[in-house]
Protein: Class A beta-lactamase-related serine hydrolase
Organism: Halostreptopolyspora alba
Amino acid sequence: MGEPKVTRDPAELGFDAGRLSRIDTHFARYVDDGRLPGWLALVSRHGEIAHLATYGWRDVASGVPVESDTLFRIYSMSKPVTSVAAMILYEEGALELTNPVSRFVPSFADMRVYQNGMASNPITRPATEQVRIWHLLTHTSGLTYGFHRVHVVDQMYRRAGFDRGLPPDLDLAEVVDRFAELPLLFDPGAQWNYSVASDVLGRVVEVASGQPLDRFVRERILDPLRMADTGFHIDASQGDRMATLYRADTDGHAVDAGMGEAVFHRPKAPSGGGGLISSAGDYHRFTQMLLRGGELDGARVLSPRTLDYMTRNHLPGGADMQQFGRPVYAEVPFDGVGFGLGFAVLQDAARHKVIGTEGEFSWGGAASTVFWVDPAEELTVIFLTQLFPSNTHPIRTQLRQLVYQALVD
């Protein structure tokens, strides 16, 4: 959608401009001392952009700066997009939240649960419940990620080739069938555990719609919202806008992760859990659609009631992720934060110990990106950078502090 720009004086939107500049001053230090390569921050209220700042480099070696149209790997910020795709099909009656996943992916019919033993010879038992669509959307399926490295089943994922990303030689149907061969951590619905569930959900979208995931997402979400910079790969013509991916070394400094060429190739298995590339302007349009109840500039993607339903806590008994979840790959505890259908949902800011508004919903990506939508304040925030992993620095908590202290109306 082109380069975003500030569209209204911050004071007219309830911000103190001087206080907003604290965002820039604070995160500039991250670049100056080598903790981040570069970043972009966008703060919007009432549908207007109040603050847009960039600092540092999209590629450190060549000295090219982050600009407002820079492209970033958004990793798990893909999950809300895939969740919206599934709920589009829900609204059409193509699936129900209570449907067993095996209705769309037969290999999920007889899932087993890990009991004990080594990764090479685990002892398992039949699951007491089918994995259902709502389990995928809420990360209560019993699936996991290889990179968690806290459980024997995580190790089994790595042994099967699922550490970070999906194997390039498999299509999505084959990937999901491989997941089905691995045991669950727990019975579906029993706990919360961050996982490959959104990749499985992407396969459900394919089967329920009769289209490849990337095509469905393009036709039903990206094109209607005019998100032309977003996709599961980029054209060579966009290459000079792409930010380099960095990883943190043992001292917490950013070093090149060597992932340059993968973005130019259409993946055989598009990852609904982490495969999208996007820009600040595009993802801002996605957050505005969410803020406006599923519609933007005349394009309605979801109904307001569906979106309201997605952004309430769906964990059983109103539990938060800290109570109901396994140890998660994240930089902050999830006290006071529940989970809806594709989004974390703030329930109790005091319990969370980070300033915010109850009802705001959010998620982030593995390269330290984050967004949130605060319906009560009509506020959306996006922070984009390219440092892996996301728990290296407390960016997300500090960003919330800096944004909310600037609201003065």
